[in-house]
Design brief:
The protein is about 15% helix and about 45% strand. The chain is an alpha+beta fold. Strands 2-4-5-7-6 form a five-stranded mixed β-barrel. The longest helix is centred in the last third of the chain and has 14 residues. The chain starts with a strand and ends with a helix.
Length: about 170
């Protein structure tokens, strides 16, 4: 599947996309915990055991030059898209599961290259993942965060699960 976005060519030239927390492109307020739990196929805490090589390929579709009216400088814009399965494969050992997984499972999720979490080997995360084309996918915009930054999520998830039990 090919999707196209328009970003300044400068972003296209970058070697690797930074995690969303540092990227100007990824200003997305995360949805409420309850909404993300309902939308996600899997919600769990896990420790990263492996980070693979990025998948997919960026393909430039079109470039365009315009002039910035405020500065008079040229602005080069590229329209590009991904071809193939895209993302960074991350394997986690599930420690605690609220939905779709069981403790002890080993699971691979594809982290977004543009708005990625920036997973680190050996670190623990609260992960929210959806299934697309057979693969579990996550991103910074889905509330996935390192466990120290998502401790409140774990408490809210516990209370939602407790309240849903008869």
């Amino acid at each position: 599947m090919i999707r196209a976005w328009t970003f300044p060519l400068l972003m296209l030239a970058g070697a690797a996309s930074p995690p969303c927390a540092d990227a100007a492109l990824c200003k997305c307020p995360p949805p409420p915990v309850a909404d993300e739990l309902a939308r996600s196929e899997a919600v769990f805490t896990g420790v990263v055991t492996r980070i693979g090589e990025p998948r997919g390929e960026v393909v430039v579709r079109e470039t365009r030059t315009t002039v910035d009216s405020a500065t008079g400088f040229p602005v080069i814009t590229a329209t590009y898209g991904w071809e193939g399965e895209r993302g960074i494969p991350v394997t986690l050992r599930v420690d605690r599961a609220w939905k779709g997984m069981a403790a002890g499972d080993s699971v691979e999720v594809l982290d977004s290259e543009l708005c990625g979490v920036g997973f680190q080997q050996g670190e623990a995360y609260v992960v929210y993942a959806v299934r697309e084309n057979g693969a579990l996918r996550t991103s910074y915009c889905m509330r996935t965060r390192s466990l120290p930054h998502a401790a409140d999520d774990a408490r809210v998830l516990d209370s939602i699960i407790r309240a849903s039990r008869p």
